[in-house]
Amino acid sequence: MATVHEPPPKVRTEDEPKLEPLGEPIAQDKESRRRDRFHA
């Protein structure tokens, strides 16, 4: 079972780096929008 779980994580690792860079800017955008709403 451990062997079958190892392949999936490897494939996700390639997708993770792509989602990480995109997630960082999005997370900052969400925080900026929340601050704008809070300030308003």
Task: Record the SSE blueprint.
Layout: H1 2-5, H2 7-39
Helix-strand string: HH
Low-confidence stretches: none
* Tertiary shape: rod-shaped
DSSP helix count?
2
Major sheet details: none
Distance between termini? 53 Å
Q: How many β-strands, per DSSP?
A: 0
* DSSP helix fraction: over 70%
Mean pLDDT value? 60
Strand content: under 5%
**What's the gyration radius in Å?**
17 Å
Derived structural class: mainly alpha
Region (Disordered): 1-40
Biased composition (Basic and acidic residues): 7-40
Which terms would index this structure?
single chain, 40 residues, mainly alpha, rod-shaped
Short description:
Residues 1-40 are annotated as: Disordered. With 40 residues, the chain is an all-alpha fold. The chain contains two helices and no strands.
Explain the overall architecture.
- This protein is an all-alpha fold.
- Helix content is 92%, strand content 0%.
- The protein contains 2 helices and no strands.
- Residues 7-40 have a biased composition (Basic and acidic residues).
- Residues 1-40 are annotated as: Disordered.
